[in-house]
Specification:
single chain, 7-stranded antiparallel beta sheet, elongated
Length: about 500
């Protein structure tokens, strides 16, 4: 009876976590103004018009002698405006003198309507009649300002300036109608993935609803579920009115195979072998840090702990697990930060920051062993160092990677002796250039969706549960991510803020 109860609890646990994620997604989706949209909204046409009313603005009256209103405009990140884009202001104007008839001045100029975009005056219209109804003023949009990638939000200010008649008793008003509209002619340009700008481009607040769909494994681990909840919570904290939903990697695959259009951004969470979406992106060469299948067996052994300034002695073992002889292999040991080589086997080559060994041939079942000693800087304290070894073939293509961690501390640790790490010929690893990514690092990657160039994908992954957890933590704690500039970040440690 107890065994059956235990199995039932294990089955219910991921369901409960998925329920928590669903509840959080519903909460995030209901924040901000309500949005009504179809399941698959149509993409915007290359010539697009939108009124002030559709942007959420109501009719506004400016009163003389001086008044102004400012409208906010956000363009989609993948737009590049072309000549011919404009803003058409639909307004009425009425002027009434309220003094004595004998003192009424003869006026031929009642003020200016000034259009200012991003702080620069674009057009001035002079009012020379006591009544204008209706009138449409077309203003050419400055594409150099609106295409500036440094400007995420644009301001359009309409000013009524009648300061020269401020001493004349009068009542005058300019009414801006919400039928005023923007007309855009644009080209689609590729998104520029940059983690330092997160939550952009997932969150743009432009003309389409911001939609993000989390893609989790069909059978997620607890670390993957809790990581998704943390990332979704932080994303909801950073945004306003975003629509967040969830799906599984298998459901996403079914949609892609059915030819369904993906109109939302994606956040993919999980290990490569547990999330089919990561492997599918890898097949399309879309990942900045690609995934490769492991070959042969690579192991390392070294001290579990060391004092600052101490010596690290590593033994590396490469085993040919195939049934054939392999030639022209090499091992490259990427030294830990603040570490310098003290000694190594006579056959090694010492380069800046790396030690390498050439292996002319390796018979089936044969093993190759080598050793290296590193001296740590005494400035490195209370931390963890990673020693990562990459196996390369004759063309310098990575075949496998192995990472061994050692704790550096000024105080004696309960953990002592040696530590071992074995990377078999099964599973996957990430590659950066010609080197393997350290196995324990969390991996965060941002890329343009290969299925929709107007959408981005955030991949939060790692080779083990701990690595996925670190990557998710990195996207859950901070509100700004300046240290993550570019398309990817390797998360070695996540320390709580003081």
């Amino acid at each position: 009876m107890s065994t059956r109860t235990g199995k039932k609890a294990k089955l219910l646990r991921p369901i409960l976590f998925m329920g928590c994620l669903f509840i959080l997604i519903v909460i995030m989706a209901t924040r901000g103004p309500s949005l009504v949209l179809s399941q698959e909204p149509e993409p915007l046409p290359p010539d697009f018009q939108i009124t002030l009313a559709e942007l959420g603005y109501e009719e506004k009256t400016l009163t003389s002698p001086y008044d102004a209103i400012e409208y906010t405009l956000r363009l989609p990140e993948d737009w590049e405006l072309r000549e011919g884009s404009f803003f058409e202001l639909d307004f009425d104007y009425v002027y009434n003198y309220i003094g004595t008839l004998e003192a009424q001045p003869a006026l031929s100029f009642f003020g200016d309507v000034i259009i200012v975009i991003d702080g620069y005056r674009q057009q001035t219209f002079s009012i020379r009649e006591t009544a204008l109804a209706p009138l449409r003023l077309r203003v050419t949009l400055p594409i150099d300002l609106l295409n500036d990638p440094a400007r995420r939000t644009h301001s359009i200010e309409v000013i009524l300036d009648a300061g020269h008649i401020c001493r004349i008793p009068h009542v005058a008003s300019l009414t801006i109608h919400p039928t005023s509209f923007f007309s855009f002619i644009y080209d689609r340009v590729p998104l520029v993935p940059d983690l330092s700008r997160y939550p952009y481009p997932f969150y743009q607040r432009a003309f389409e609803p911001d939609q993000v769909r989390f893609v989790l494994p069909a059978h997620p681990m607890e670390m993957e579920l809790t990581g998704a909840v943390g990332v979704a919570a932080k994303l909801g904290d950073l945004t306003y009115g975003m629509i967040i939903s969830g799906t599984s990697d298998l459901e996403l695959t079914e949609r892609l195979e059915a030819g369904d259009a993906l109109r939302e951004h994606l956040i993919v969470i999980g290990r490569p072998e547990n999330n089919e979406a990561i492997l599918r992106l890898n097949e399309l060469d879309a990942l900045p840090l690609p995934v490769k299948e492991r070959q042969l067996s690579l192991a390392s052994q070294g001290p579990a702990a060391v004092a600052p300034g101490g010596i690290l002695s590593y033994t590396l073992t490469l085993t040919n697990t195939t049934q054939v002889s392999i030639s022209a292999l090499s091992l490259v040991d990427t030294l830990p930060a603040y570490g310098q080589m003290a000694s190594c086997d006579s056959a090694c080559s010492d380069m800046e920051g790396e030690v390498s060994w050439s292996i002319p041939s390796l018979e089936a079942g044969e093993a190759f062993k080598c050793t290296v000693e590193l001296r740590l800087s005494d400035v490195l304290t209370d931390s963890v160092v990673e020693n990562t070894v990459t196996l390369l073939d004759a063309m310098s293509n990575p075949l496998n990677v192995n990472t061994l961690t050692t704790t550096v501390s000024t105080t004696p640790l309960a953990e002592s002796g040696s530590r071992a790490s074995v990377s078999t010929d099964e599973g996957y690893f990430f590659v950066h250039g010609e080197r393997g990514v350290p196995e324990n690092d969390g991996v965060v990657q941002e890329l343009v969706s290969p299925w929709d160039q107007a959408r981005a994908i955030l991949v939060i992954t790692g080779l083990n549960n701990e690595a996925v957890h670190k990557a998710a933590q990195a996207m859950s704690f901070e509100s700004r991510f300046p240290g993550m500039a570019g398309q990817f970040a390797l998360v070695r440690e996540v320390r709580p803020l003081p």
